[in-house]
Amino acid sequence: MLLFQETQELVEEVPQEKTLSIYNLIMDGGVGGQIIIALLFVLLAVALYIYFERFFAIKEASKVDVNFMDQIRDHVTNGRIDSAKSLCDNTVTPTARLIGKGISRIGKPLEDINTAIENAGKLEVYKLERNVSVLATIAGAAPMIGFLGTVIGMIVAIHEIANSGGQIDIKMLSDGLYTAMTTTVAGLIVGIIAYIAYNHLVVRTDKVVYQMEAKSVEFLDLLNEPV
C-alpha cells in the first residue's frame, strides 16, 4: 500500500508538457494583440488577392502568337494597312496594342511613330504594374505592425508585473512573452509572403516589357526596310 502511494506521488509530480495553441495565444493577447493580428490577416488577404489577380493578368498579357509579327510584316509590306490594324485590334495583348498604335501612325515621320509607341508602352506598363506597389508596402509594413504588437504586449506584461506587488509570476510573464512574440511572427510571415509575391510579379512584368520592346524594335525595323 505504501509503495502504491509513493508511486502515485511520483506520477503526480511529473511535469506536464505545455503545448502551444495559436488560438489561445491570440485570444489571450488582449484587445490590442487581437486587433494587430486581425489587421495582419487583412493585409495577408489583400496581398494574396493582388498577387493572384496580377499573376493571371500578366500571364495573359505575355501570350503572343509566334506568327503575329510575320502576319504584320506581310500586311504592311503588301500595303494592307487596314488588315494589319484589324489583326492588332483582334489580338488582345499589350504588344498588339503597341504595334497597332504604330500602324495607325504609318505615313508620318518615323520619329513620331516611335514617340507614339513609347507613350503607348508607358501606359501598358502602368496597367501591368497596377496595385503591385501595394505588395511592396505590405511587405515593409507588416513586420513593423507585428513588432508594434510585440511592444504593446510587452508593455501590458510589464504593467501586470508592476501591479502584482513586486511578486513576479513566472507563468504570467512567460504567457505574456508568448503572446507578445506572436504578433512579430505573424508580421514576419505576412511580410515574407508579400515580399516574395512582389518580386515574382516584378520579374514576370519585366519579361512582358522586354517582349514589348523587342516587338516594337522589330516593327520599327520593318518600317525602315527599303521598299
Shape: rod-shaped
The fraction of residues assigned to DSSP E strands is: under 5%
Work out the number of β strands.
Answer: 0
Radius of gyration from CA coordinates: 31 Å
Count of folded domains: 2
Q: State the order of secondary-structure elements, H for helix, E for strand.
A: HHHHHHHHH
Structural class given helices, strands, pairing? mainly alpha
Largest sheet: none
- Flag low-confidence runs: 9-15
Number of helices: 9
Classify the helix fraction into a percent range. over 70%
How far is the first residue's CA from the last residue's CA?
112 Å
Average the pLDDT over all residues and give the rounded result. 79
Short characterization:
Keywords: Cell membrane, Membrane, Protein transport, Transmembrane, Transmembrane helix, Transport. This protein is mostly helical. 82% of the residues lie in helices and 0% in strands.
Kindly describe this structure.
- With 227 residues, this protein is mostly helical.
- The chain has two domains: 27-61 and 131-208; 68-128, no CATH class.
- It is 82% helix and 0% strand.
- It has helices at 2-13, 22-27, 30-61, 68-77, 81-90, 94-104, 110-128, 132-162, 170-224.
- Helix 4 (68-77) packs antiparallel against helix 5, helix 5 runs antiparallel to helix 6 and helix 8 (132-162) packs antiparallel against helix 9 (170-224).
- The longest helix has 55 residues, at 170-224.
- It is rod-shaped.
- Keywords: Cell membrane, Membrane, Protein transport, Transmembrane, Transmembrane helix, Transport.
- This is MotA/TolQ/ExbB proton channel family protein.
